């Protein structure tokens, strides 16, 4: 079993600052790498739990993860430091890109660049999902929830809010009543 490291506030800021610098639209894989593999602040299981929490709360998932990780180690001040580190660099980059986009949005090169970024972002998300899926228990209940969530969103096209309202309580109830099967 992997042991985790407890970061100080400066490490939280710099870690999430580097995550914020690393990605455009798809930083969760970078966050997972930094938190679990590089700095060992969380185990894969802990990351999956924090990510799940981040996805059911309102707001951007990565901001929710930064807040949860910061709060885990240093309470409210850790949450603020992690969030500030995460958002500082992208804010500057986005402001610069917005100014450039306003001036050059009709250029064919810019249009092609934007078309090429979408598949890359999807690939990053799928890669992280597959990596996390390898850590799921080899039991039926977690995989049934994965399948049910996929069907609800991709096939039945239910709203994300409705899926969360239905499946989060179901997942929690199953974990509560049969912890050895879900954990």
Span from first to last CA?
Answer: 15 Å
Element pattern in H and E: HHHHHHHH
Low-confidence stretches: none
Radius of gyration: 18 Å
The biggest beta sheet reads: none
Mean pLDDT over the full residue set: 88
How is the quaternary structure best described? single chain
| Proportion of strand residues | under 5%
Please identify the structural class as seen in this structure.
Answer: mainly alpha
| Number of beta strands | 0
Number of helices: 8
Characteristics of this structure?
globular; mainly alpha; single chain; 183 residues
Explain what the structure shows:
The chain has helices spanning 9-22, 28-38, 44-56, 61-104, 108-133, 140-155, 160-177, 179-182. By secondary structure, the chain is an all-alpha fold. Helix 3 (44-56) packs across helix 4.
Write the layout of secondary structure elements.
Layout (H helix, E strand, L loop, with lengths): L8 H14 L5 H11 L5 H13 L4 H44 L3 H26 L6 H16 L4 H18 L1 H4 L1
Helix pairs in contact: 1-2, 1-4, 3-4, 6-7
In a nutshell, what does this entry contain?
The protein is 80% helix and 0% strand. It has helices at residues 9-22, 28-38, 44-56, 61-104, 108-133, 140-155, 160-177, 179-182.
